[in-house]
Design goal:
- This protein is mainly alpha-helical.
- The chain folds into 2 domains: 152 residues, Tyrosine recombinase, N-terminal domain (DNA polymerase, domain 1, Orthogonal Bundle); 185 residues, hpI Integrase, Chain A (Orthogonal Bundle), CATH 1.10.443.
- The protein contains 14 helices and 7 strands.
- The strands form 3 sheets. The protein has a 3-stranded antiparallel beta sheet.
- A hairpin with a 5-residue loop joins strand 2 and strand 3.
- Helix 3 crosses helix 4, helix 4 runs antiparallel to helix 5 and helix 7 crosses helix 10.
Length: 379
């Protein structure tokens, strides 16, 4: 096993291994812990984090117990194992949440001393004042996501026999959010603004409004993914900005990867009304569809900014970019599309996700339903 740098080695299996002193045993001898990752810089980062933590106390001479690792040490063991199993974007998401929220609060806790009450206090603090900018608390959903990661780490510690029993974690109740869906009149107003002075960014907004693409899928789309007759597009990649876990360079980086699930890799029919617009902006095959230059991509945040400007110009209530996807799904249901087809177009794992999350009954639909009821009663 060749050594590179201080206490960091390249293993035969291709991974990097780092060694760090954990404390001393009952005999006074130094005991060591180990972290693993796919890159040298990631191991170096883990060792740097651990070097700033207080070492676990030496075991009493009368009780030569096994070393009691900190929560942070267990997290690093868990990360070293899952780093080669999950997508890069998923791994970067774990790192971002751990570094910003979880480890600063729970990292120094001894794993065997950590209780459900400690985790409950952590959740309460995040709900009340957990925003990084100090402007209030985080949403129940965000805190639930944090608790899910903590639960995975706790279960990992239990399965690895680091702790004798797992912990029961109470999750905050998540309020049902009302998804923003453009009314039919709002959609017409937005379309008027988009088509009046059409550019490549407005084309992207129209494409999402009529295909239900996620913004990351749109930004990763290349002209080679659109059929020559502008009748079909293929979704096989997504683009997003994630935390840079390499330990060098910028804090974030652009990641182009496969979509969030196998079902998200799909072919989507393109409405005929979009064909003339697409044809007028077509470029060489490997160029990004939403780009002013062949080799340049557009970031999701940039698309959100262009969308916000169009919403303001259309003089309609504020909406985020994902509302285009909700609106598309709702219009499809109103037009009578079957749920199975819609679920496949949206790239959902099953039909229930489509029904529960993306299909919203508009007031117009409810009125039409009541009119049908009145006609039935009259008969």
């Amino acid at each position: 096993m060749p050594k590179t740098g201080r206490n960091i080695y390249k293993r035969k299996d291709g991974r990097w291994e780092g060694r760090y002193p954990k404390g001393r045993n009952a005999d006074g001898n130094i005991t060591y812990g180990y972290v693993y990752s796919r890159t040298f810089t990631e191991v170096k980062r883990h060792l740097s984090v651990l070097s700033n933590e207080k070492p676990a106390p030496a075991a009493p001479e009368t009780t030569p117990e096994k070393h009691n690792p900190t929560f942070s040490e267990v997290v690093n063991q868990w990360l070293s194992i899952i780093s080669l199993k999950v997508k890069s974007s998923t791994y970067a998401g774990y790192i971002a949440i751990l570094d910003l929220h979880i480890l600063p609060s729970l990292g120094r806790y001894n794993m065997r001393s950590l209780t459900a009450l400690d985790i409950g206090r952590f959740a309460k603090a995040k709900l009340e004042n957990g925003r990084a900018d100090g402007r209030g608390g985080l949403s129940a959903k965000t805190v639930r996501d944090m608790l899910s990661i903590i639960k995975i780490v706790v279960d990992f510690a239990y399965n690895e026999k680091i702790i004798g029993s797992t912990l029961s974690i109470t999750y905050p109740k998540q309020q049902q959010r009302t998804m923003r869906v453009l009314s039919r009149q709002e959609q017409l107003s937005l379309e008027s603004v988009l088509t009046a002075e059409l550019d490549v960014y407005k084309l992207g907004i129209l494409l999402c409004l009529y295909t239900g693409l996620r913004v990351g899928e749109l930004c990763a789309l290349r002209w080679q993914d659109i059929s020559d007759d502008f009748n079909t597009l293929s979704v096989s990649q997504t683009l997003q900005r994630v935390k840079n876990t390499s330990g060098s360079g910028n804090k974030t980086k652009i990641l182009i990867d496969t979509p969030k699930s196998p079902r998200s890799v799909r072919d989507v029919p393109i409405p005929k009304l979009l064909a003339p617009y697409l044809r007028s902006f077509a470029r060489k095959d490997d160029a990004y569809v939403i780009s002013a230059e062949d080799s340049i991509f557009t970031e999701p945040r940039t698309m959100q900014n262009h969308f916000s400007k169009s919403v303001k110009a259309a003089n309609i209530s504020s909406a985020n970019y994902h509302s285009l996807r909700h609106t598309f799904a709702t219009r499809c249901i109103e037009a009578g599309m079957d749920i199975k087809s819609l679920s496949e177009i949206l790239g959902h794992a099953n039909v229930n996700i489509t029904l529960n999350r993306y299909v919203h009954s508009s007031f117009e639909q409810k009125r039409e339903g009541m009119n049908k009821l009145e006609q039935y009663i009259a008969m």
